[in-house]
Amino acid sequence: MENQQLLDIYFMMHKIRKFEEKALHLFEANKLRGSVHLCIGQEATPATVCSLLNEDDYITSTHRGHGHCIAKGADVRYALAELMGRSTGYCKGRGGSMHIADFTKGNLGANAIVGGGIPIAVGAALASKMQNEGKVAISFFGDSASNEGTFHESLNLASVWKLPVVFVCENNLYGISVPSWQSTSVKDIAVRGEGYNMPYVVVDGNKPDEIEKAARAAIERARAGEGPTLIECKTYRWLGHWTGDPTPYRTKEEVEEWKKKCPIAYTRKLLEEQGVAPADLDALEAKAQALVDEAETFALNSPEPDPAQVLEDVFYDGGDN
Hints:
Elements lengths: L2 H26 L15 H7 L7 E3 L5 H6 L4 H8 L33 H14 L6 E6 L6 H12 L4 E7 L2 E2 L2 E2 H4 L16 E5 L3 H16 L5 E6 L17 H8 L3 H11 L4 H23 L21
Parallel strand pairs: 1-2, 2-3, 3-7, 6-7
Antiparallel strand pairs: 4-5
Helix pairs in contact: 1-2, 1-10, 1-11, 2-8, 4-11, 5-6
């Protein structure tokens, strides 16, 4: 990768991490009601994949979706306001952490249903193909979603119709508290692509250079009308499944070993080896922190939704029921 692309990814990873740290701080201060699912440790995959997309390309996300949302161009002010249930949020404070969407950026939404976003990405890819738009859809999902029926149905249909969709599995090794080896029949989820006659690849999900190579090839293939690809990014969430999860199902030693594989530290080392000054990298981190601090002020000063508007933006059949 060229220096500027890697610098952009480095900055985006910092912006995602600072956002997640801010959300955790606000939760612990009892200013953010309800738990959230944080992606600290997993920043490389969304930052790298989304760096290769056009603004009007599509993504679908997961319950652990803040990183996808931000990497696809979200304004962190509106994203944090949504987490805090404020009327200035992307969904006017009604969707919350697991349902952020921004159609103007091609973000078709996070999804609280495990595997729920996968068929939506396939539908978006089908629409793009039928309308000859040249858009690509990215479906982000976790390891547990690969055991859902929607995963298999979606991969089959995408392959049959050669749709411009890339399936990106962020395998963080756990489905809530269950390790993937206890719930999944294969060591590498990517090999399931073979059953649906599509290319598949396993990459280190903490290394942007590996992710970029695989994602670029898959996106170019999709855009050229050659059909879908399945990419598995092996990664790890440093924190629990949700804020407050005490994680009794894994050891501190395991967590510390994965922290040594920090994607931000890895990328910083690459950039320094390419001649980027440490002071310039520090400045990018400070810039990310300033943006998130500004978002905190914006969200805390934003009004809560007006109860009188509770029926606005709600779809119903117009009847009495």
